[in-house]
Specification:
Number of helices: 16
CATH architecture: Up-down Bundle
Order of helices and strands: HHHHHHHHHHHHHHHH
CATH class: Mainly Alpha
Structural class: mainly alpha
Distance between the termini: 11 Å
Number of domains: 1
Number of strands: 0
Radius of gyration: 20 Å
CATH superfamily: MFS general substrate transporter like domains
CATH topology: Growth Hormone, Chain: A
Length: 418
Amino acid sequence: MAKRDPYAALRFREFNIFLIVRFAMVFAWSMQFVVIEWEVYSITKDPWALGLIGLMEVIPAVLMALFAGHIVDQKEKRGMLIKCIVGFSVISLGLFLITWDKVVEGWETQTILYGVYSLVFLGGIVRSFLGPTIFSLFALIIPKQVYTNGATWSSSVWQMGAVVGPAFAGFSIDWIGVHGSMFFIFGCSISALVALLQIKVKPILNEKVGENIFKSLGEGLRFVWNKKVILNALALDMIAVLFGGAVALLPVFAQDILKVGSEGFGILRAAPAVGALLMMFTSAYFPLDKKAGMKLLAAIFGFGICIIVFGVSQIFWVSVIALFLSGVLDGISMIIRQTILQLKTPDAMRGRVASVNSMFVGSSNELGAFESGLTAKLFGTVRAVVFGGSMTLITVFITGMISPKFRKLDLSKETEDN
């Protein structure tokens, strides 16, 4: 009966606290990234500088990911999340200081940029631990039979933070400036830390605590490689996000192409997240587990089309609609992918699998930002976005052709059995 209840996961108190923590962190992180993008482009007027923001975060996130997954599987999850939030708070405080005119008065532009990039790099290290920790903690606070429902609500809260964070960032920059916005972000991270303390310490389910790190990493990689349904889902989403990362160039569109200022920038940045959020709330009542493979392929194909439309549009409302629809389709993709990961991953290996997920998908957001910045520098902003959308379409077509078993993937029976 629990699988028919759209609020099944919300009936567990600690899960509600978990959602509050996740919202606060996603809100703070997404708002911080947007504020940094705006500040960097404002002082450089160079899309390449935007690409470097993504590169600075993705390098440590990829290099540290597998080691972070091993460590997370060996440690108590609430304690690990506390350390991640403290780390993020220190970075936010650093960005608050570096955007304070009284502190950086007389500094060269390059010095400020180096400071921002260094803090973003440290944020990539923190993020390599944050993703696996949240993924692992999720499985310890609700029973397995409500994983699908819990994944929907968790993803919805993630998108809610991704909606409010960028939108608020656009308005906040206009209202209280970059420096004031960074202080607000720091306050959000402290609030998340206070809420997290309401969750009890959880047991360590890994029976191989103390296992050799390289043996542990090899076991995690082999599991993902042999579990083709997980591998295909991660690879498909990675390529789509990598080449469809148009949002990294939104400051260029807002300031130079659509000419809508910081408020329009906030709307553009929030549009895809609004679409994803609405889709996720809808999916709580209409699950996506039936014929999941075909739905995932169709959603990412439609996402690519929306990115192309956005790239060629010079009308603000057309651009907003294209981004909104891309968010709807991305929401479908995210829910199906998270459901696959939660259902197919053993408890003792969640940290390592989540780390591989962060390498494939999470880091591809920043790597996509780098790719977008590079292609925009070489070929122009519009061509860069259209190229990315076209590569997404090609990727979906090839995946569908060579993976007939993935096309036929249906998760409905597995959710019923659990």
